[in-house]
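Example 5.3 — Epimerase family protein
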Amino acid sequence: MINYPSQIVAVAGSSGLVGSALTAALEKDGHTVRRLVRRPVKDPNTEIYWKPSAGEIDAEKLSEVDAVVHLGGAGLTDSWWTEEYKQKIRDSRVNSTRLLSETLAGLSKKPRVHVNASAIGYYGVRGDEVIDETSPGGSGFLADTCREWEAATQPSWESGIRVCQMRIGVVLSADGGALAKMLTPFRMGVGGVLGSGKQYMSWVALPDLIAAIQFALDHDPLHGAVNTTAPNPVTNREFTKMLGTVLNRPTVVHTPAFAVRLMAGREMADEILLGGAKIYPRRLQAEGFEFTCANIQTALETVLGVN
Ligand SMILES: NC(=O)c1ccc[n+]([C@@H]2O[C@H](COP(=O)([O-])OP(=O)(O)OC[C@H]3O[C@@H](n4cnc5c(N)ncnc54)[C@H](OP(=O)(O)O)[C@@H]3O)[C@@H](O)[C@H]2O)c1
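Solution (predicted structure tokens):
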């Protein structure tokens, strides 16, 4: 961070794909990270206790930090979307964000910025409509969850803390998330288009996501909803073709929509795998953020270490 060197940054969800990359990047840049942990604290110098499911949080420790980033939440595709698991997806995001936000709002010494994860699921399934932050939200389970998730940051904002809700796209990394799950079938030559292949995939390479979060921490004019996706969304067909090219594997296997629904369940299939939205990062670009992986070929080559 250029404007704010040597910050103390509290990170929730620090053990996850994004959280572990962010904490490493912050520490490399000379910042001090305090991880919010959902178990008893082992080292009080580096960890802050919270247990969102029980409404517990160490508020006093949070008054020592300059910035807060919340990247927690139960995995979207870790289970079938039963009513019980959907409740867990929602509660682990909305209730934890509300607890954090209300706690920050009540501190006498508040952090200057609260960056919170949200997701492009906010926009729902939108065909090839061009979407930016001025577009209205969509419908469906993920859109409703994201609306509530973002609304839960309101106490921070009302108390004068700058808030950024990062509407994160599909994160591309070899270490986890959607791409890592696709690698085995694609390497075996059985990867291919899902459904019509026309559904848009708005993606972001992990290194650019980390840079965007750091930009949000540092850049005072940025606030509110921030689409955190690369400026070149692709269709599932284009993504499939490029992944095959980068891995030098065929992508002739086509999984029809009914089979995708059988494998993932209809709701998850329709909202995540067969549906999508064509999303642009207008606000990040307007504020001068530059993507190092702006197109899908560079992104896949970078995160997969292929040249
Ligand atoms: N990866 C993507 O493609 C993507 C796309 C859009 C949005 N996002 C959002 O970005 C954030 C980070 O994503 P990620 O890929 O890093 O996720 P991740 O790897 O699944 O990590 C999420 C972290 O959340 C915490 N967590 C897990 N279950 C929880 C629960 N029941 N209650 C509270 N916290 C829980 C855990 O951290 P601790 O054990 O350290 O608490 C976990 O490591 C998430 O909110 C995710 O929804 C991700």
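Remark. The longest strand covers residues 113-119.
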